[in-house]
Amino acid sequence: xxxxxxxxxxxxxxxxxxxxxxxxxxxxxxxxxxxxxxxxxxxxxxxxxxxxxxxxxxxxxxxxxxxxxxxxxxxxxxxxxxxxxxxxxxxxxxxxxxxxxxxxxxxxxxxxxxxxxxxxxxxxxxxxxxxxxxxxxxxxxxxxxxxxxxxxxxxxxxxxxxxxxxxxxxxxxxxxxxxxxxxxxxxxxxxxxxxxxxxxxxxxxxxxxxxxxxxxxxx
Length: 219
Known about the structure:
The protein has helices spanning 4-16, 19-43, 60-68, 73-85, 88-105, 118-145, 173-218, and strands at residues 52-53, 154-157, 166-169. It is mainly alpha-helical. It has a single domain (18-218), classed as Gap junction channel protein cysteine-rich domain (de novo design (two linked rop proteins), Up-down Bundle).
């Protein structure tokens, strides 16, 4: 899979973000995307082939693996990376709309199309809320699918066509669990950054509106 489009998206969003937003972009790009491409993919690359049960009954290993890993950790992580980055497209599209509108009217309609104000501020706030919501949804999904943020060494399976309860062993459980904890930590960090940015923008806009009303009242 090519991750070039996600890199380009993050680069485009970085131009219109404030300081906290740029930190978020750096965390996603360095601590999530690069770690995924460089290390995580290799760890889970052969997880099905390395999943072994102490019985050779045809089909037993397959159904047990599907039961304990309904969705691969690495696939879910990739989907999470894509989904939490997608709301940023709203900001990019809004800026492109402003630029097209200025070109259509052939005049300067905005101080700068990329300034976070007016309608673009609302779009930016919505994108932050969506990113936080998606991060939380995926954390809950991880927790529900795998019964917590852990990777056991041994799982017991009694699903047909297994003739009885069999022991199945997961490869490299400690290494996988470390990366899973890293995933959770970076997701939580991104939630904190998004929440901080949301609070900062709302506070800044509230102060700006209050000062405008105060100056108008004084005049």
